[in-house]
Each structure stands twice: as C-alpha cells, then as structure tokens.
Amino acid sequence: MGFLKAGDVISGREGTAFMTIDGRNVPMFFLKNIEASIELVKTEVPVLGKRMNQQKVTGANGTGSMNIHKVTSEFMMIGINYLKTGIIPEVTIKVTNDDPNSKIGRQTVLLKEVLLDSIMIAKLDVESETLDEDVDFTFSDADPLETFAEPILG
C-alpha cells in the first residue's frame, strides 16, 4: 500500500487570487484567507416500503467567505457606488493554489457573478493591532481552469 508524500500536501500560503471588477483586474494582495463552497439544495423524498427518507438534489448555491487585511478601498467603493448609482459591478474571483514544493501542480478556480453579502465602509478598533475585515459572498457559477494531478504514492 502506498502513502502520500508530505511534500505533495499543498501549503495554504502558496498561491494567488485576483478579482475582476467590471473588467479591471485587481490583485488580492490583501487576502488572508478565502473559501468557496457549492452547497447542494436537497429535497426529502419519502418512498413507499422504506422507513428512511431519501434525498434528491434539486439545486445548488455558491457561498464563500474571506478575511482580508483592511488595506484596500475596493469593497467600500462597491458599496458607496451602489448607494449613489444603484449599480453593482460584475465581479469574478480567480483563486490559484500553487505550491512549488508539491509535484501535483496547480489548481485554479474561477468564481463568477460574485455578490458581496455586506460591505464594511468604515472601521476603527482600539484593541486590534491590525484591522481585518470579514467578507461573505455568493456566486452563481464556477469554472475549474486548472486541476491538480494525482499524487504519486510513495
């Protein structure tokens, strides 16, 4: 039986992320962490002759969260511009895992039609050494642009 080589485990610090806001590319140098998930919408299906109900997938929701260093006005400007114009820009986020020590390569995922759940426009915190911001979001589509290779077991 083979085993996973430790060098192929992906470091969470190795990678890049970019936002595209109405066609303008924004490097997400301020990112501390990001997660995106597809949550399956299920319907309970009772079946004659079975005591346990079954589940049927009937849809999906894309949700995500990120934590950022408060060193950018990009999100604040989205909120203020919406207040003034009523327009939300088209936003995509591209996340790449790229650990040069791993032999499984890179993985890149493009999140499409990203909408922020809430937008912090100002913050002070006398007990914090650095200002951070939690940003939850939804997305309506995703594409895998690159996928990891299968690890070679030792």
Task: Give a verbal description of the structure.
The protein is mainly beta and 154 residues long. It has one domain: Pnp Oxidase, Chain A (Roll). 8% of the residues lie in helices and 46% in strands. The chain is built from one helix and nine strands, in the order E-E-E-E-H-E-E-E-E-E. A hairpin with a 2-residue loop joins strand 1 and strand 2 (24-27). The longest helix has 12 residues, at 74-85. It is globular and about 55 Å long. The model has no long low-confidence stretch (mean pLDDT 96).
Care to give the gist of this entry?
By secondary structure, the protein is mainly beta. About 10% of the residues lie in helices and about 45% in strands.
Salient structural properties:
mainly beta, 4-stranded antiparallel beta sheet, 46% strand, Pnp Oxidase, Chain A, single chain, 9 strands, 154 residues
Share of residues in helices: under 10%
Terminal-residue CA separation: 9 Å
From the helix content, strand content and strand pairing, which structural class follows?
mainly beta
CATH architecture classification: Roll
Q: Calculate Rg over CA atoms.
A: 20 Å
Instruction: Specify the biggest β-sheet.
Output: 5 strands, antiparallel
Average pLDDT, all residues: 96
Task: Please state the overall shape, judged from the principal axes of the Cα atoms.
Answer: globular
Poorly predicted tracts of residues: none
Biggest sheet strand line-up: 2-1-5-6-9
Write the element-wise H/E pattern from the N-terminal end onward.
Answer: EEEEHEEEEE
Count of extended strands: 9
Quote the beta fraction: over 45%
